[in-house]
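Severity: low
Component: inverse-folding endpoint
Summary: output formatting inconsistent between runs
Steps to reproduce: submit the following structure tokens with default settings.
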């Protein structure tokens, strides 16, 4: 992980590069550089002792059930009708994170006792693929600001074209801040779970993301959750 001092220096260097490029390179490129400087500076100012991990993915994969399983509480509504979650909500371990959640514009917050996950802010997000376009806008807004994105899929949706083409491939340079969570593993036999993992690895390789961690879990039975917690 990048140390705060190192990050400060990189942000300053990017700000200088954007200033030097102004008038020489395309305006859009300079603006993108400046936006990164602004966002990174704001995030750094809010302290790196808290990590923001977001559960993102298509509707119905079990993001909310996973949020409940990781928090050990029935905080989020798990639904049969799609889509279920319409606004992001947070679980915060320990007592930090208030200013960070203001910056993230997440209103619903649940505070949990510190312990093993002290300093973690876990976010349950709306889906990016339902009929509700506003869900996608909200999910994408938060994915851009999170420190770690856990892309949640299940046996039907892991090869989803939108997930791979719109999100994973363009984020190939962010390998250090993503993980793939294969949820609902309870629906498959052990042999099929093995084949599923292999195929998911193949797709990640095609996306240029061979290095990202994969967690195989069942939010329903709790299988794989200790390994997932270790990624947080
Ligand atoms: N068998 C099985 N079913 C699961 C698991 N996790 C979630 N489900 C079921 O999948 C359905 C969708 O779960 P949600 O947690 O609401 O899914 P979501 O990803 O939050 O969906 P949206 O809020 O619409 O984006 C529910 O019927 C859950 O009971 C799991 O690990 N195994
Ligand atoms: Mg949900």
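Observed output (run 2 of 3):
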């Amino acid at each position: 992980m990048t140390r705060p001092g190192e990050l400060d220096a990189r942000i300053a260097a990017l700000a200088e590069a954007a200033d030097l490029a102004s008038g020489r390179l395309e305006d859009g490129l300079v603006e993108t550089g400046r936006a990164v400087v602004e966002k990174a500076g704001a995030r750094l100012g809010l302290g790196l002792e808290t990590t923001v991990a977001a559960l993102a993915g298509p509707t119905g994969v079990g993001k909310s059930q996973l949020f409940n399983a990781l928090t050990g509480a029935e905080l989020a509504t798990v639904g049969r009708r799609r889509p279920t979650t319409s606004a992001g909500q947070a679980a915060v371990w320990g007592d930090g994170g208030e200013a960070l959640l203001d910056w993230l514009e997440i209103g619903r917050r649940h505070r949990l006792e510190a312990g093993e996950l002290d300093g973690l802010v876990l976010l349950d997000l709306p889906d990016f693929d339902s009929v509700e376009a506003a869900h996608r806008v909200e999910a994408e807004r938060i994915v851009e600001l999170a420190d770690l994105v856990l892309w949640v899929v299940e046996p039907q949706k892991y090869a989803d074209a939108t997930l791979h083409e719109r999100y994973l491939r363009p984020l190939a340079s962010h390998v250090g801040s993503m993980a793939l969570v294969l949820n609902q593993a309870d629906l498959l036999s052990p042999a099929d779970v093995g084949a599923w993992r292999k195929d998911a690895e193949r797709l990640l390789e095609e996306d240029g993301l061979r290095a990202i961690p994969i967690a195989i879990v069942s939010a329903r039975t709790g299988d794989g959750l200790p390994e997932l917690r270790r990624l947080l």
